[in-house]
Amino acid sequence: MSSDDIAITVEEVSKRFELYDKPSDRLKQFVMPHLRRLLRATPHDYFREFWALRNISFEVRKGEAFGIVGRNGSGKSTLLQIITGTLTPTAGSVSTNGRVAALLELGSGFNPDFSGRENVYLNGALLGFSRAEMDKKFDAIAAFADIGSHLDQPVKSYSSGMVVRLAIAVQTQVEPDILIVDEALAVGDALFQKKCYRKIEKLLDNGCTLLFVSHDQEIVRSLTSRAVFLKTGHAANYGATPDVLFSYREFLQQEEEAAFLDLQKRSTGGSLNQATTKSYGSREVEILGVEVRAADDTPQTVFYAGDKIKIVVDCVSHVDIVNLNVAFRILSKEGVKVTTWGTLNEDMRLPESSADDMFWNKRFKKGERFKVSFSGACNLGANLYEVQVVVAREYDKFYGNQQVLHWMDEAGHITIILKNKEYVFDGVCDLGLRSTLEQETVAVKKLDMGAGSIR
């Protein structure tokens, strides 16, 4: 691939910060090492090193949507600041090819004493646009921000939502070559977020490169094709977005697992299978297999929309246990979460008088094997889908406190097709709505053209 096809190149980037215990140490660091060198003594540092990033490398192609995920403090924002040029790396290099627009910290790039209108022109100038060019873009920016008369008020009087509206309006309406977004959309309301995502998708269609950071894994999955997972400043995984997100979820699960150690005593008996690369969990209850079947109970992977479908989850308990929930999730090939359902969802709908019928109340003994089947009509739209399954211990009967025992990605795949001229619909699913016709006879008044009136 030629360098002209690359929008962003990050090569062996590291960033070190110096942490001082007290202000006087900073002054000592400025003076003492020089004096010790003059005296031919070994210099001494008065700070502690903190490496926010270590040897990060990746490339983003032109027109590509690339994601960055990781917990708070993993180095995401530091990396974005280095890419945009507001921070310099301690080691390594970054190069960008094209005009860069960035949505980083809330209100960054805005002068709080200037009005919204003045900040629009100021940001345009920083992006390299002339006053005349910004005059042409201003109406579109104002319409997208939709903050009304506040546009002529000082930005310091804005709410956080108004600030992010104006910032996003400026950065997206100037149609940059590279758009960098760091959690900025999380501040806006749901309708504005939807508006922003539509605009981002339009920019991508027009060849814009997107570098996207968010804690919302489903948004990252649906928007981006490749991603990097940062963990304590290192690139823990880099590649296709679904694989990177799996690594990220597995890491979060391990963190959650550690939090449960003081709540329960784990059994050491049983032989647990740790080899599966697309699953994780303590495996106190283990998923042995998942099968998708047709109405006649035969294994099947291709269905017509509306066909009966059965998802069978085969499990074994390695401990005596109660309060389980077996559930599944279906994702489209675009990574959109279509539906989730589990035994706990059904238990929540049962009255307390049916406690004996609740799966949540059933006790399983060590070594006991059991299967859970989910059956129903498959009213999904034509697409390829992934089935993910999980068995979890629910400490509350309403998804209030959950411990994942075994999670499995890519437990199954199904393809849904439509019967042309028989059952056709567009979109994610058929809601099952049906039309009814209500007719009413209405008296029609006679028009008297000669009198020029209606009788």
Written overview of the protein:
The protein has 455 residues and is an alpha/beta fold. The chain folds into 2 domains: 3-246, P-loop containing nucleotide triphosphate hydrolases (Rossmann fold); 275-417, Distorted Sandwich (Coagulation Factor XIII, Chain A, domain 1), CATH 2.70.50.60. It has helices spanning 23-38, 76-84, 116-126, 131-145, 160-173, 190-205, 217-223, 241-259, 343-348, and strands at 6-19, 48-61, 65-69, 91-96, 100-103, 178-182, 209-213, 226-231, 234-240, 279-280, 285-293, 302-304, 308-317, 324-332, 337-342, 369-377, 383-394, 402-417, 447-448, 453-454. The protein has a 6-stranded mixed beta sheet, sandwiched between helices. Strands 10, 12, 14, 15, 17 and 18 form a 6-stranded mixed beta sheet that branches. 30% of the residues are buried.
List the helices and strands and how they pair.
Layout: E1 6-19, H1 23-38, E2 48-61, E3 65-69, H2 76-84, E4 91-96, E5 100-103, H3 116-126, H4 131-145, H5 160-173, E6 178-182, H6 190-205, E7 209-213, H7 217-223, E8 226-231, E9 234-240, H8 241-259, E10 279-280, E11 285-293, E12 302-304, E13 308-317, E14 324-332, E15 337-342, H9 343-348, E16 369-377, E17 383-394, E18 402-417, E19 447-448, E20 453-454
Parallel strand pairs: 3-7, 3-8, 5-6, 6-7, 12-18
Antiparallel strand pairs: 1-2, 1-4, 8-9, 10-18, 11-13, 13-16, 14-15, 14-17, 17-18, 19-20
Helix pairs in contact: 3-4, 4-5
